[in-house]
Amino acid sequence: MASRKAKKKAGSMRAKRVTSNVFAMFTSEQIQEFKEAFTWIDQNHDGFLQPDDLKGVFSELNKDPGSDGIDKMMADAPGPINFTCFLTIMGRKLKGVDTEEVMLDAFKILDPDETGKVAVSTIKELLVSGGEKFSDDELKGAFEGAPVEDGNLDYIKYCKIVKRGED
């Protein structure tokens, strides 16, 4: 009898599960996509993202995050990275990102003829001479995977990729 009371008391001392409003930040489709990404990144399938998981992902992608790149990524988390924490981090990262409409409007300023394209050289010039000057590596990263043809960025496709992902 005493053991039943002890079990009941121990059960009441457990941390109560707190539901997070982070799930309200995303559509169910986005949450599913994040879940798929989380599952892929979680290489050892223990439900937590750890440095070794990230190393495995970078290895699969043939990318080098640099000597302290993974440490910097892990520092974004307040503790162990389970799926809810992962969503919280993604929400923080995406919170400051402009809407697709705002992005399109910004590009349209550079496209008075409304062709849907802007010369990459024009964008690069703005990025290296603006307030936060881009480094060569940042410029390279900005156009990696971007729909560029004949030296022109298809900014309509680019905005869709940035906001919705690859088709």
UniProtKB/TrEMBL annotation:
Entry keywords, A to Z: Calcium, Metal-binding, Repeat
Superkingdom, taxonomy of origin: Eukaryota
Any one GO MF annotation of this record: calcium ion binding
Domain EF-hand: 29-64
GO cellular component, one term: cytoplasm
Gene3D superfamilies xrefs: EF-hand
PANTHER family, alphabetized: MYOSIN REGULATORY LIGHT CHAIN 2
Identification of the protein by name: Myosin regulatory light polypeptide 9-like isoform X1
Organism: Branchiostoma floridae (Florida lancelet)
Gene behind this protein: LOC118423294
